[in-house]
Task: structure prediction
Amino acid sequence: MTKFLQTITRHLSFFMACLFCTVSVNLVPFNTPSALAARSGNGVNVILMIGDGMGWNMARAAAVAKGAPFYKAGKGRGLSFQQLTGYTYATTYGTTIAGSTGNSALDATATTCKTTANPTGTLDCGVTGAAPVRAGFQFNPALNPGTPARNLTATAAQPCRLGGDPLGGNIVGFEPAKGGPNPWTPLTPASPGSADPEYIKCSYPDSANTASTLYTGVKSYNNAMAVDIYERSSVKTILQDAKALGKSTGLVTSVPITHATPGAAASSVNRRSKYDNNFPALDNILQEAIREDQGYLPTVLIGGGHPLDYENTTSASTIVPKNIPDPKDPTKTLTAFNYIKQSTYEELRSKPKNNRYGYRFLERDTKVTTTNNLGAIVDGGKTLIQTAKKINPNTGERLLGLYGARGQNGNIPIRGASGDYSSTGLDNFAVYATASASTAPTGSPVNNGTQIPKPDTVRPLAPGETDSQFIAKEVKANPTLAQMSRAALEVLGKDKDGFWLMIEGGDVDWAAHDNNLDNLIGTMRSFDTAVSEVIKWVGRNGGWKKNVLIVTADHDHYLTLNDNYAQLVQSKGAKDLTYNQHTPNTAGHFWGSDPAIKYGWGNHSNRMVPVYFQGGALRLADFVGRDVDFVDSPPGGTPKRYKIPGVPRAVDQSHIHQAMLDALRS
Result:
């Protein structure tokens, strides 16, 4: 409790008048009958589905690969979410401070901060909100786009200021004259018209920043998890708002449950890398999310990050024999605890029905390392759905499911474009990294055909295990995103007061980072299958009068489809275009701003993202073209409200937050 009160004090120094009432609310156990009886909602369900990194061209690539016409504008067709009646696009930008989009307005290098180099400092400035405000900082609402990390063609006519002018404005913003008036203009940087093909590479947002805006309506910096630029949780997340309205809540993801997109709904920390810590420590994502005294407590939390995943390789665990070396790095063992601490995992695993967090805990079968008998492996999807049917949110019951494939990076098994799972167990970030490093960016044309990727081919097989056995066991042990979504709906749909649910296809983003078209189309199809599952559920449970569905992205990447893409992807297949065709012309697509380079950009972009939506209680269309509100509330100062220019025929992610909140309150 002492830790809890210290956390409250840290976050509410600017809001002392409400200290007593906040503590009083948070000290009430959230699963007591009296607390449950006091809450009542309007019966409306709001479902937000985020295809992480799913820009307009990502949706188009998947739709066309499925057989849809090669459309060049608008909503398109061929995927389940393209059948929703509403469509617009959204800006995704955040803030830039002292020359970087990753900086808050606080200075963790101040002389008062205690560090190894400054042991006499008095402040632990790594703690959220603990550092002092940067000397002389005053918020400036002017737009300040910055410079792309790799600017091959910039000229004086394409002015992206170096790193974002440290003395300039603090809003990245979006200027349609430079970035395009919609996500399909320009269709290719080879013919940009009046647009600047480098502009959308300037000061791109990350998933923490954009998810925070979707959940709170607040624009902030890259890395921010539901905190403002001063590292304060100045407003509640929509998950907290839904809970206060008497509704159940849920977070579902194909990637680790402590990653940015799910984590920003259920925590308030200054860095997205603060995944978990040993109980009772706070200032981390997982402990804030699942402890009853922190005020988040999603009813359902399902996703990846299980300790068997490949990224967890820093120390041994008891899940597999400790002496199995990592075949990709013999100095390491196969498992450890990165996205979840061992102490948290052991608490949940050893007490699946009566742990300190109050969750019914499920995990993927861990016997995969000790048996090759597929029949002995528990079916993860079937077990999850069967368990979900027994969970009653009306009596305070909650469900936490932890999954993830061995050999990957914390996510569930990856599908390729053809629907197979041949990428399961392989590193998700091996194509772009090896292709872009295969030759220096020189010559004319630069790297055209000389970038040869060396994708991962080695799975962390257990002794005596074959690749086919590995894949079959991993696929069986883990649920699909559609099964996770169905399980969440099984639980939340029992709450007659309604619910708020976020479902993320997080590995769409990972495929785009990797410039991996095969994985991109496969993960898009997995995400779309989950969307189809949700739409069918809506039809059986009150229809669009009772339910709201929004399908969007947190940010875009920089993918261009050439005019020959449709013919090539349908004749050769995405696998061939990914691994065997190394020029934009032969592959039918390229990444980045240079049409001569296939593997030209492995990060996000600042381009607007598509928004598909439907639901009687949703009034998102009312926000089209509106300006964006930004409230600067410096510590000890007077709050000031600014208007950031909106984009004609578009919304901002802060508007999506407000539209969801309005629907929950309707």
User: Anything to note?
Assistant: Residues 1-38, 149-159, 313-324 have pLDDT under 50 and may be disordered. The first strand starts at residue 45 and ends at 51. The longest helix spans residues 517-540.
